[in-house]
Each structure stands twice: as C-alpha cells, then as structure tokens.
Design brief:
globular, nine-stranded antiparallel beta sheet, single chain
Amino acid sequence: MSITRCVDLSAPRWLEQREEDWRRLAARGPVAFDKYARLRFIPDPSYPAQREGDAQRDPEGLSDNEQLEVVLAELARCTGTPDDCFFCIWDGWPSFTSDDPTPKVSIPNRDYFLFHGTLGDFADWDAQIKTLLDDLGDIGGAPTPAFVWPADHAWCVTCDIDPHCASIGAGLDAIDRLVADPRVDVVVDDPAREPPYYS
C-alpha cells in the first residue's frame, strides 16, 4: 500500500469539531487521551528567550521525520487499525500552491491537506510525499505531518509548524513505552501546562 491524498474529509471531522482553542489544538493536539508526552526534536530551551538556532543539536542525530518514524512504529502496536491511518499536512508549506483544488481539513486559522496510508508507509514518508507533490515544486525534505492518527482514534500525534516538539496523546502503556525508548527524546507532558518554547 502507499500514501494517497484524500478528498473525502469525513475522517478528520473529529478534529474539526473539537472545542479546544485552535492554538492549543494545532500545537498540542486534542485533549481526549489518558496520558500525554512530547517528542523533543531538539532539547527544550535551557534559558529564557533562547532562540531555536542557538539550541545544541546532535549533528549525527535523526531528522524530525526519522524521530517521528520511531514513535509511529511504536504506536503501531497500540492501535487496532495500523493499516488505516490519516496524516494532515499544513497547507502553508511552499510545496502547495494557493489554487490547489484539493479539499482541506480546517480548524480556525489552520488548513491542512489530508493523506491516508498505513503506519508502515511512514518509513518511506519523504519519498512518497515528494512523489505525490512532484507537480508542486521541489520541497527538499517532506513536511512533517501536523496530525497523525489511526482510524480507531487510539492515539494522536500533533506537530505544529513552530514548536520544537511533537505532542502525543495515547494510552498509559503507549506513553510509558515511548518515554522508555532510548532512540528518541520523549518526556511525559501535562496538557494543562504550557511546555517551554524557543523565542
């Protein structure tokens, strides 16, 4: 199977109908799960008003999408529908033209294009998305998906355009396994408190 673009927008209605403030929903995901965590693509800021460009990065570390691949492979064990998953990409990426006629998923102040595939497909995310968007220009690496969830809504991963981390809502065991995984930097998150951000 491979990732495909979707014109049927019935699957993301649950996101569009959420009551959370749009900024909270876009950056931290829906408040609908037993436990939460953050996948830190880079470490949290170490001092107030630190700029992201000043963060200490591992030059040989995994890319954002490679880190997300590790997380999604683990979360595949925590859903009954790993072969029926949805991926939203923010429509503001340069890879999309303003007159793209494909229907969009919408929350206030954010629109997304919807894709469908299996969690196994994410291992080839960059190549598949670049192939799907080939007629829309060279985008370098594929955009990190803004939302990923399985059809059974067992969990949701959220990654907005600005934060240095992705938010994960899932069951207790799933979050505990992710936090214990040495391949990625995942920490428990409290959805009622704002995490640190770069300036």
